[in-house]
Each structure stands twice: as C-alpha cells, then as structure tokens.
Amino acid sequence: MKFYNTLIRYRFWLGLLSIALAILVTVKAGFWPAFILYFIGIIALFSHFFIGPLRLVQEPMEQGNIEEVEKILATIKYPGLLYKPVRSTYYTLKGNLAMMKQDFDGAEKHLKMSSALGSPMPEAEGANKLQLGMMSLQKGDFKQGESYIRAAIRLGISDKESEAVAYLSMCQIFMNKREFRAAKDYFRKAKACKPTAKQTVDQIKEVEKYISRMPG
Hints:
The chain has helices at about 1-30, 30-50, 60-65, 65-75, 85-100, 105-115, 120-140, 140-155, 160-175, 180-190, 200-210. By secondary structure, it is an all-alpha fold. The chain has 3 domains: about 1-50; about 55-160, Serine Threonine Protein Phosphatase 5, Tetratricopeptide repeat, CATH 1.25.40; about 170-215, no CATH class. The protein starts with a helix and ends in a 5-residue tail after the last helix. The relative contact order is 0.06. The model has no long low-confidence stretch (mean pLDDT about 90).
C-alpha cells in the first residue's frame, strides 16, 4: 500500500522521466525498443490527470490532518480533466474544507459543482444536498433549503445522525410555515433516528418543548 501511494504521489514525474528515456532509446536504437517506456510514460501521465491523487487523501482525512489534505488537493492543477465521478469527489472535498473554514460562499460554490456532476453513490449526493440545504437555511432562504433537504432525503443519507438533522430541519421549516401536522411527522422521524450527537440531541429536546402544544 505504501509503495502504491508513493507511486501515485510521484507518477507525473515518473511519467515524464519514462518518456524522456523513451526518446533517448528511440534516438539510439529505434522506436520498438523504446515502446514499453512510451507506454509506461503515457499511462502514468494519463492516470495523473484523469484519476488524480485523491486516493492519498484517505489517510490524512482519517488522522484529521487537514493541511495535508489541502496540499494533496492543491496538486490537482486541472480538475476539469478528472474523470467525472472523481471530479465530483474533488469538489465535495473542496466544499467540506471551505465549510471547516467558515467560508460558506466557497463551500456552496464547490458543493453545487459537485452536485451538478452527480455521484456514483446516491448517499454521497444526498449528503451534498443536505449541506447545501443547511447553508440555504443559514442564509434565510427557506424555500431553497427545503428543496435541497427534500432532495437529500429522497436520494438517501448514509448515517443516522445526518438523517436526523435533515428531518429536524424539515420539522422546523414546517413549523415556520405553520403546517403543524407535517412538522410533527418530521419530528417523529428525527427522533426515530436516535441521534447521539449532543448538538442534535439538544435541538430535539428544545423542539420537543413546543411540538406537543401544537395543533394537528
């Protein structure tokens, strides 16, 4: 695994070196003796631009090493050349990093780009829509927020914590619209997810103080 990661990290330069050696062999001995070097060089360069180094992101992400993640993403100079699902993941990561820095405009921009490309995993696209919905709610755009969160629920959300947040957000949207029956329904769904994150649990307790007094 370590060897493979090292290969990914340096494959651009290895590809250039291989092609340079191929040219030298061609001059000295002709094309066919150099064919394998050309082949290796082209594959290395193609995979560098078409697939990128996103495989390297997993370990620093698990370690919480955000600076290393940013360094890896910064090596992608031409994201438009990435294979579509890889490009979608790239923009999702850029959006998540922007959110960590409280750069909501940057996060929204990148997450919208990712969402427009789609994802091979509906759950990942659902998570994107949920983040976009939460940002819309923070800006006070409840109509757009509801649209994004509905899409997230429809696509599916991979973890129960995020699913609870989605239902709770829908509950609050319908409370604001004074559609209390729908608000209660979404509240029950949020509780059924049994979230454990303190912020979500506290939010449920806060909403519960008012939900039982609502008609419908």
